[in-house]
Amino acid sequence: NSRPISWNPQTNDYTLALTDRENAVAMNKGTANTVTVPANATVAFPVGTSIIIYQEGIGPTSIAAAGGVALRVRNFGSPTVTMVAGQYGMVTLVKRATDEWVLSGDLYV
Fold it and tell me: Which residues contact 84 (CB under 8 A, 6 or more apart)?
């Protein structure tokens, strides 16, 4: 079952919502901005959920974990904040366990 993804355009800091599940968030801001991955107690994404984050604007987009959330990033373990590598860069978040997400893609850590 394949389907087109929906794009959720954002121009300010943003906390992921259940509607972002299996879709993409496009951050279009001229200054620094942050996408926050919420704790499971706040937004209960099912394990296995994937979400694409796209930096559309020139402002650097950081991916931050809310308290209690672990972001796993290759070669960097579990940082609390990472950044998309630049404009037009894209990363993917995949929920692996209750409050554990794997972050991969065009990253600057």
Answer: 27, 53, 54, 55, 60, 61, 62, 63, 90, 91, 105, 106, 107, 108
Which amino acid type is present at position 38?
P
Is pLDDT of 80 > 70? no
C-alpha neighbours within 13 Å on the C-beta side of residue 80: 3
Q: What residues are paired with 81 via a beta bridge?
A: 64
The whole model's pTM is what? 0.93
By C-alpha distance, which of 39, 42, 55, 25 is closest to 95? 39
Q: 61-65 and 7-10: which strand pairing?
A: unpaired
